[in-house]
Amino acid sequence: MRPRHLPSRPVRIAQRVRGSASGGGGGKMAEPEQKRRIPLVPENLLKRRKAYQAIKATQAKQALLNKRKLQKGKQIQFKRLETFVRDSWRKRRDDVRLRRMEQRPGQVTVAKEHRLAFVVRITEIKGVSLRVRRVIELLRLRKIFSGTFVKLSPLSLKMLRIVEPYVAWGYPNLKSVRELILKRGQGNVNKKRVPLTDNRLIEEHLGNFGIICLEDLIHEIYSAGRYFRNVTNFLWPFQLSVARHAAHNKVGFLKEMGKPGCRGEGINQLIRQLN
């Protein structure tokens, strides 16, 4: 028997498919497709872009943190009615007291041997009269339990009378002056607190006035000498503390501390309590 041959139709179909793909049925050759060229970017420009994006991301993160801090700090603070009443009463009381002082100026008698006073602020000054606040700032008693040395004169005595309900003052002895300066003495150097641990620091800032060591500084303050004002301006206000007593009984200690006003020699006991 003669073998049967496979039909040649699939070959013709394949040829037609090839022809249609190549010529599109028209017998013409298709134009080659053009390739898209990607523009090249210099490497330094890419580095700059990356650095700029990193900077912008950091700035955005910092701005968000600052905004959160600002929102946290802008929380509404409520004040009780008693606070406004207390501040108003304190201001009115100061105005009446100062008016009486002007109408009936009383003379504060101080013994001639007392030329030096130490003033400590022992109460809050919220809501006080503007005149009282100015004197407090002149005495540099901006913080509670801060103290300064004052040279006694008619003007300084008048200032002490103005702020008398808020400060305790008296006549310190040499031991109290020495203990305050040795333990809490700090100099004002470029508006920064610098402990008085080196005589060279004192000589550098007060050497023009003949004060070259701690002993000279203590003597100038205790004697209320010629350069007393220069020395006190160099010294930072003494910041005393009740931290040792607060752990036991702070309220009781504040009661024991007594009322404001002139203490005389009793200021030495207060200095030892707070120093």
TrEMBL record:
GO CC aspect terms: cytosolic large ribosomal subunit
Keywords: Ribonucleoprotein, Ribosomal protein
Record family assignment: Belongs to the universal ribosomal protein uL30 family.
Protein name: Ribosomal protein L7 like 1
InterPro entries reported in the protein's UniProt record: Ribo_uL30_ferredoxin-like_sf (IPR036919), Ribosomal_uL30 (IPR039699), Ribosomal_uL30_CS (IPR018038), Ribosomal_uL30_euk (IPR005998), Ribosomal_uL30_euk_arc (IPR035808), Ribosomal_uL30_ferredoxin-like (IPR016082), Ribosomal_uL30_N_euk (IPR012988)
GO terms under biological process: maturation of LSU-rRNA from tricistronic rRNA transcript (SSU-rRNA, 5.8S rRNA, LSU-rRNA)
UniProt-annotated stretches for the region Disordered: 15-36
Source organism: Phasianus colchicus
Top-level taxon: Eukaryota
